[in-house]
Design goal:
CATH topology of the largest domain: Lipoxygenase-1
Order of helices and strands: HHEEEEEEEEH
CATH architecture of the largest domain: Sandwich
Strand order of the largest sheet: 3-4-1-6-7
Radius of gyration: 29 Å
Shape: globular
Number of helices: 3
Largest sheet: 5 strands, antiparallel
Strand content: 25-35%
Distance between the termini: 92 Å
């Protein structure tokens, strides 16, 4: 009995030491996560909205209309729902109206990476309306903002409300010039019509023609 007691005591001590060692190892591994406040604060300090040139499109949340935002950066192919990005700008949200929409807002947005100087063009199009035969006009709001170097938040520079009146109606909302530092070029703002959809179609067709066997 004494020998059995000694063996069982040794086993118990060994198991206890192993369990304690495992617990200490777990605590050491978890130490960096027990008080993450300072690390999180340093990581989020200075974080701001992404993008430099920001174009937003909004229309009434109860309208089951698919309105599309098109943006052309200087010397680039226009960006819209069939071409969601290039080396300068990206369409981050393509809203279809109430169709397959889990949110309560009708909203599209384009961001740029950096500020490219030159002429920018912003268009909107009524891609789908509730009643294409007898459509009810859809008022839409377009806001252009710029986040310049050293700023944490973008500053709105242009805002306008326009009305899309029929199916596939395309409007040029803004044409404007920007400097490399994000300032509006004096006297550059206008809404002279320029179809970005047609420009994209021409560029797309040229690309197809240039492909081998095209």
């Amino acid at each position: 009995m004494d020998e059995f007691d000694d063996d069982s005591g040794t086993i118990f001590r060994d198991v206890t030491l192993l369990a304690l060692s495992a617990f200490v190892a777990m605590v050491l591994m978890l130490l960096p996560f027990l008080n993450p406040g300072a690390e999180v604060e340093s990581e989020t300090d200075g974080i701001s909205d992404p993008g430099n040139v920001i174009i937003e499109l909004l229309w009434a949340s109860d309208r089951d209309a698919d309105i599309d935002l098109w943006v052309k950066a200087p010397e680039r192919v226009p960006v819209g729902f069939p071409n969601k990005g290039n080396e300068v700008v990206n369409l981050l949200r393509d809203d279809l109206g109430l169709f397959q929409d889990l949110t309560d807002i009708n909203y599209e947005i384009v961001y740029s990476r950096g500020i490219v100087p030159g002429e920018w063009i912003v268009n909107v199009q009524a891609y789908r309306l509730e009643d294409p035969i007898q459509p009810t006009p859809v008022p839409v709001q377009v806001v252009v903002s710029v986040k310049r170097e050293g700023e944490d938040r973008p500053t709105p520079i242009l805002e306008k409300e326009v009305e899309l009146r029929f199916l596939r109606h395309e409007l040029t909302v803004f044409r404007f010039g920007l400097t490399g530092k994000g300032a509006l070029v004096h006297g550059s703002v206008n809404d002279i019509k320029h179809s970005l959809i047609m420009e994209y179609a021409r560029a797309h067709n040229r690309l197809l023609d240039e492909r081998p066997g095209g």
